[in-house]
């Protein structure tokens, strides 16, 4: 095989390849840097704040004020992060990001009561072999319900999808359900996307059939990546999100020329 595929797949890599094989190649195989963005860094800060809320505070302590304090700590901690520094924000820009992040953290409390949550895993890394594929994922939160069933929770800071695209957005958490089944030996009772911007919750119930389907789809993506590496062919897939792509100047769909692949 002329070009080695990645050593493993994750929900983000699956989404990247299915969204645009060329962008996947430039990011994952060529490892070209992507320009940092305010929405991405803001999402990182909000995730860190919610991680702190559940890691350091127990039931009865998880108030909105405490969560906003966790956000302040997360904003301070990210100050020296290269992606944050590369944004080049002035004081007004930093305050604007902090204010927008505070709205997202506040919206979280519209979706659920954190004092009713019993997490068994926070930022929980799981790995499993699916045939010749190594599948990896980091679950934002894995909860145990009062009835003992498990629930996969994933925070989202972007716009919630329309009903037409809900199933596509659930693909990532269904991969987490597959990992939970493989590693822990049981299906989660629910997978939940908490869209903090809107705010809205999207919930699905995994089953043996849905997990089997996700395993087949993930294996199919892995095979497609292998063929693309072997044939040295990663085609662009133009769409509405192209205007945000870091690699637009290299894309043939917009008159660009991708760099030559270098064999591993």
Description:
- This protein has 264 residues and is of the alpha+beta class.
- The chain has two domains: 1-29 and 118-239, no CATH class; 38-115.
- The protein contains nine helices and five strands; from the N terminus they run ααααααβββααββα.
- The protein has helices at 11-19, 21-29, 38-56, 64-77, 82-87, 91-111, 166-169, 171-184, 208-231, and strands at 119-130, 133-144, 150-156, 190-195, 200-204.
- It has a five-stranded mixed beta sheet with strand order 1-2-3-4-5, with helices on both faces.
Secondary-structure element pattern, one letter each:
HHHHHHEEEHHEEH
Q: How many DSSP H or I helices?
A: 9
Structural domain tally:
2
Number of strands: 5
The portion of residues assigned to helices is 40-55%
Q: What labels would you give this structure?
A:
264 residues, 2 domains, globular
Please outline the helices and strands:
Elements lengths: L10 H9 L1 H9 L8 H19 L7 H14 L4 H6 L3 H21 L7 E12 L2 E12 L5 E7 L9 H4 L1 H14 L5 E6 L4 E5 L3 H24 L33
Parallel strand pairs: 3-4
Antiparallel strand pairs: 1-2, 2-3, 4-5
Helix pairs in contact: 1-2, 1-8, 3-4, 3-6, 4-6, 8-9
Question: What's this entry about, in short?
Answer:
With 264 residues, the chain is α+β, with helices and mostly antiparallel strands. The chain contains 9 helices and 5 strands; from the N terminus they run ααααααβββααββα. It folds into 2 domains: 1-29 and 118-239, no CATH class; 38-115.
